[in-house]
Amino acid sequence: MNMHQAEVVDHVEASGGYRILTVEVPSLAKTVKPGQFIHLRIPRMDGAVLRRPFSVYMAHGKEMAVLYKLVGRGTHSMKSIGKGEILSMIGPLGNGFPMLQSLKVPVLVAGGYGVAPLAFLASRIKKKGIVFIGGAKASDVLCVKDFKKLGWEVRIATDDGSAGEKGLVTKILDEWLSVLNPVELLEFFVCGPDGMLKAVAERAKRLDHTAWLSLDKHMGCGVGACLACVQKIKRNGVVSLLRVCREGPVFEASEIVWE
Ligand SMILES: Cc1cc2nc3c(=O)[nH]c(=O)nc-3n(C[C@H](O)[C@H](O)[C@H](O)COP(=O)(O)OP(=O)(O)OC[C@H]3O[C@@H](n4cnc5c(N)ncnc54)[C@H](O)[C@@H]3O)c2cc1C
Ligand code: FES
């Protein structure tokens, strides 16, 4: 974990309400792993908490990108970031996703901007798998081209039916699971809202597959000092509060104690 000065090389709209910010930051781009995140200082913003956490969406050569959704004060302030601007970021933070076990088929399940770290993960896994992407509407379904370019199978669900099937992402996942050869060895990698994480965790448990969930918690310091981001985790029969920013954000599904 280090503080970096990153130069903005590109900042574009990805789809309505989402943007991709690309920076040149060789020291970080070379070392970051899928599932890790950065804590970005938002320029031109007042307030106690000036940094915001974002998963890394792409790292290649000297460059690294994040894909973000405009939700509140911080992300709206980010809209004014221009090419050539120097940004302060801390990273890489967190533990990231583990390596895929060689015999298993990777199954990625994403909700909204949760697709960003999974697109990065797919770019680093040699084995091609399947990705289920869910969103409220068509403009919330991101990175489809990234996965197709890598040769992955993509299935889509939206709440309003404006892209893919109408309904929850777990509906299309269930349809796929129901016709699958039962001896197929799967490994799930999941990022999205809590309800979706929990639903995929239940399926993985029922079918005896491993699932890695990336948790999204509100953060303060981002580096393990303030305890704003704790999550109950049960390991070896003992429940403890672990920091999502430090011991996470990725945890094995069966360890998470849902409140
Ligand atoms: C490990 C990690 C990785 C993340 N990766 C990404 C990413 O790749 N792309 C992306 O767009 N966002 C990501 N987020 C969420 C992002 O950090 C928040 O959306 C952002 O901090 C909101 O800042 P804001 O000032 O715009 O909103 P605020 O004004 O702080 O909040 C606006 C609204 O968003 C809600 N909110 C704030 N933070 C979060 C959060 N962490 N999770 C859910 N709701 C939140 C608030 O409750 C409020 O309703 C990630 C969060 C974590 C913890
Ligand atoms: S955000 Fe401060 S300990 Fe995790």
In words, what does this structure look like?
By secondary structure, this protein is of the alpha/beta class. It folds into 3 domains: 2-93, Elongation Factor Tu (Ef-tu), domain 3 (Beta Barrel), CATH 2.40.30.10; 97-210, Rossmann fold, CATH 3.40.50.80; 215-259, Dihydroorotate dehydrogenase, electron transfer subunit (Dihydroorotate dehydrogenase B (pyrk subunit), domain 3, Ribbon). It is built from 6 helices and 16 strands. It has a 7-stranded antiparallel β-sheet. It has a 7-stranded mixed β-sheet with strand order 11-10-9-8-12-13-16, sandwiched between helices. Strand 12 (186-191), helix 6 (194-207) and strand 13 (210-214) form a beta-alpha-beta unit. The radius of gyration is 18 Å and the shape is globular. The model has no long low-confidence stretch (mean pLDDT 95). Bound molecules: flavin-adenine dinucleotide (FAD) and FE2/S2 (inorganic) cluster (FES). Flavin-adenine dinucleotide binds at residues 37, 52-55, 66-69, 71-75, 113, 116, 216-219, 249.
Note the topology.
Elements: E1 2-15, E2 18-24, H1 26-31, E3 37-41, E4 51-55, E5 58-60, E6 63-69, H2 73-78, E7 86-93, E8 105-111, H3 115-124, E9 130-135, H4 144-149, E10 153-158, E11 165-166, H5 169-178, E12 186-191, H6 194-207, E13 210-214, E14 230-235, E15 238-243, E16 250-252
Parallel strand pairs: 8-9, 8-12, 9-10, 10-11, 12-13
Antiparallel strand pairs: 1-2, 1-7, 2-6, 3-4, 3-7, 5-6, 13-16, 14-15
Salient structural properties:
259 residues; alpha/beta; Elongation Factor Tu (Ef-tu), domain 3; Rossmann fold; Dihydroorotate dehydrogenase B (pyrk subunit), domain 3; seven-stranded antiparallel sheet; seven-stranded mixed sheet; 6 helices; 16 strands; 20% helix; globular; binds flavin-adenine dinucleotide; binds FE2/S2 (inorganic) cluster
